[in-house]
Amino acid sequence: MLFVLICLILLILTLPGTVELLFLTVSAIRKKSGTMEIAEDGLPELAIVIPAHNEEVGISKTLSSLQNCNPSLSNQNIYVIADNCNDNTAAVSEQMGVNVLVRVNEEERGKGYALNYAFSHLQAKKKYDAFVVVDADTTVDANFISSYQDLFASGADAGQCSYRVDHYQTNTRTRLMNIAFLGINHLRPLGREKAGLSVGIVGNGFGLSSGTLLEIPYDSYSIVEDLEYHLRLIRAGKKVVFLEHTAVRSEMPSTAKDAESQRARWEGGRFKMIRQIAPKLCMEVMRGKFRMLEPLLELLLLPLAYHLMFLLLLMALAWFSNVGFLVYSFLAMIIFVLHVFVAMYLGGCDKLDVLALFKAPGYILWKVLKLGKIFKMSRDDAGWQRTKR
């Protein structure tokens, strides 16, 4: 009886994620229909917003990437938000010829506050058609700016490009992180795009039209402010479009020690949002707001390492207790594997990436051992801290 109860709990924990993975994976491999219609009355003027906290080492690389991808883009359209910096981020950015907004507020710390400050300042300063956010540790593809100009010329509310790991060939850890990114930040938004849904925003490489920002100010300040803000967009009937043919690329921590704080912040923030928002989304779906169903399933989809761990545990326990649970865990495992390999195929992975999967059990064990810190970051009083790279 105890085995059956544990199996039921594991089923409840993994079923929403299994449904979400199946839906998005199948949708992503469908043929896309329709093309984007672009207005003929000139390209929109974009403001590129770069929130930066103590990024003097890497900010010039980001700025050079933006300047090189579209030489016609004026430096006056690029804004670095030097947010609570105690290094030379502002000076380095000014030497690159771009605008710098210095923000100092020790009480209100975090990316959400920095973006809200920047958007409010720029909307009052000049009438831009849209705003595009690029993290300060990022390089962009050569067609990044032109892709966003075409997007907003078509009248889109918002956009999100593919978000990749830069220099992912460094070691096995970065290869595994790249595979996870391909699933989360490429396959899943591609699946939503082909299904006609809003694709979400992931905090880096996203854009908002000025009309969207005026209607829905960016006053979301949690650790996962991008997820929080996207839910507000969906409730307002807005749609984020996926730009699958351009990308932003960020270097990720290559050692376990440096990766620890980043994973704890991301996953702790996600668990916090599950606790705070999932019950509200359930109520909205039950009241007939079915556009919130897919965001609810996405929210309940656990990080893939934990999803896989629970499926393996369920499979082991079901072997001794219930054939129904065993069949479910087997099918759910097939869906999980399909999701991973489709993501790798779409992302152009090679045989070294496939070999890296054999070391995934050690990576999963490392994440399990960090659950204490992750749950600590899910508390309401958890604060933001910069990740070392």
Provide keyphrases for this structure.
15 helices, Spore Coat Polysaccharide Biosynthesis Protein SpsA, Chain A, alpha/beta
Describe what this molecule looks like in 3D.
This protein is an alpha/beta fold. It folds into two domains: 10-30 and 263-377, no CATH class; 46-171 and 196-253, Spore Coat Polysaccharide Biosynthesis Protein SpsA, Chain A, CATH 3.90.550.10. Helix content is 54%, strand content 13%. The chain is globular, with a radius of gyration of 21 Å. It starts with a helix and ends in a 12-residue tail after the last helix.
Topology:
Blueprint: H1 2-28, E1 46-52, H2 59-69, E2 78-83, H3 89-95, E3 99-103, H4 111-125, E4 130-133, E5 138-140, H5 144-153, E6 158-166, H6 172-194, E7 206-209, H7 210-215, H8 225-235, E8 240-251, H9 256-286, H10 293-300, H11 304-318, H12 323-346, H13 351-356, H14 360-369, H15 371-377
Parallel strand pairs: 1-2, 1-4, 2-3, 6-8
Antiparallel strand pairs: 4-7, 5-8, 6-7
- What is the N-to-C succession of helices and strands? HEHEHEHEEHEHEHHEHHHHHHH
Largest sheet geometry: 8 strands, mixed
Given helix and strand content, the structural type is alpha/beta
The CATH topology assignment of the largest domain is Spore Coat Polysaccharide Biosynthesis Protein SpsA, Chain A
Percent in strands: 5-15%
- Distance between the amino and carboxyl termini: 48 Å
The CATH architecture of the largest domain would be Alpha-Beta Complex
Q: Work out the helix count.
A: 15
How does the overall form come out from the CA principal axes?
globular
Strand order of the largest sheet: 3-2-1-4-7-6-8-5
Question: What is the name of the CATH class of the largest domain?
Answer: Alpha Beta
Q: Overall pLDDT, averaged?
A: 87
Task: Determine the fraction of residues in helical runs and give it as a percent range.
Answer: 40-55%
- CATH homologous superfamily classification of the largest domain: Spore Coat Polysaccharide Biosynthesis Protein SpsA, Chain A
* Uncertain runs: none
Find the count of extended strands (DSSP E, 2+ residues).
8
What is the radius of gyration computed over CA atoms, rounded to a whole number of angstroms?
21 Å
Number of domains: 2
